[in-house]
Amino acid sequence: MKILCLECRNAEYALEYPTQSSAEVDHAMPPPLAWDNCLLLLVAIEPGDMTKIRHAAKAIRRVSRKTDAKSIVINAFAHLSHTLASPEESHQAIADLRDRLTESTPYQVEMTPFGWQKSFKLDVLGNMGSQRFIHI
């Protein structure tokens, strides 16, 4: 599992188009599209990472305690790895990570719609530790 952690003043995205493995989006109740003071996690799931969820959550909690973030946003990001798990395993692992963080942190934890191409606008902080890479 590879995770790029970005502490953002603001983060927003727009759904562009679904891919073959995209999750359904309830357009009557669309997901949040913007956050202030968040920790954005760009996550690539590799084969066997389902067993690493607990360790990943622990590493993310450590990083989050060093930020002023008010929420954690998880986004599947295949571009961090050349060896990806199946879309089904990746979606499940990211959902499990979201659930684990929801249970074990005081933060609001969100997950962007899986499998969609998105455009992003990010205002990433430039201070020490606001941009971290975790490899588990």
Instruction: Indicate the low-confidence ranges by residue numbers.
Output: none
Apparent shape: globular
Rg = 14 Å
Helix-strand pattern: EEHEHEEE
The biggest beta sheet is recorded as: 6 strands, mixed
Oligomer: single chain
Account of the protein in words:
The structure is a single chain. Helices cover about 25% and strands about 40% of the residues. The chain is α/β, with parallel strands linked by helices and about 140 residues long. Strands 1, 2, 3, 4, 5 and 6 form a six-stranded mixed beta sheet that branches. β3, α2 (about 85-105) and β4 form a beta-alpha-beta unit. The radius of gyration is 14 Å and the shape is globular. The N and C termini lie close together (about 5 Å).
Quickly list its features.
globular, 6 strands, alpha/beta, 38% strand, single chain, 136 residues, six-stranded mixed sheet
Give the SSE layout.
Layout: E1 2-18, E2 34-44, H1 53-65, E3 71-76, H2 87-104, E4 108-111, E5 116-124, E6 131-135
Parallel strand pairs: 2-3, 3-4
Antiparallel strand pairs: 1-2, 1-5, 1-6
Helix pairs in contact: 1-2
Short description:
23% of the residues lie in helices and 38% in strands. It contains 2 helices and 6 strands.
